Amino acid sequence: VQLQACGGGLVQAGGSLRLSCAASGTIFSFNVMGWYRQAPGKKRDLVAIITSGGSTNYADSVKGRFTISRDNAKNTVSLQMNSLKPEDTAVYYCNVKNLYSSGSSDYWGRGTLVTVSS
Question: Which terminus of the chain, N or C, has fewer Cβ atoms within 10 Å?
Fold first, then answer.
């Protein structure tokens, strides 16, 4: 599985950005797609995930500001980020988790930098 993300950039606080990620390769019917982020000097943290059935989960810090969506036919996942804050600055990584009966397999994109200026 290969993931290609785009949409990062520089934005002022209060602004918006939209990240998109296209997955190619073998995507299982049961899977989870999502976004994680890693700020300088910090560990990679979950931002938002969405299952193949459409269930979502968000980090508390982004609830109400970010919206994750997916297109199962195109194997794409997007993250609409509104009301951005300087603390949202990080490298954002797209993730696909193929689920199977005995476990799962994780795939990661290269990451796209989001910088929010104050």
Answer: C
Burial readout 40-58 (b: 16 or more C-beta within 10 A, e: otherwise): eeeebeebbbbbbeeeeeb
The helix, strand and coil proportions of the chain, stated in percent and rounded to the nearest 5, come to 5, 60, 35
Q: What tokens does 107 get?
A: 């795939």
**Smallest Cα–Cα separation from 2: which of 21, 25, 18, 20?**
25
Q: Over the stretch 27-58, which tens digit does the pLDDT of each residue have?
A: 888 899 999 999 999 999 999 999 999 999 99
Look up residue 67 and give its amino acid.
Answer: T
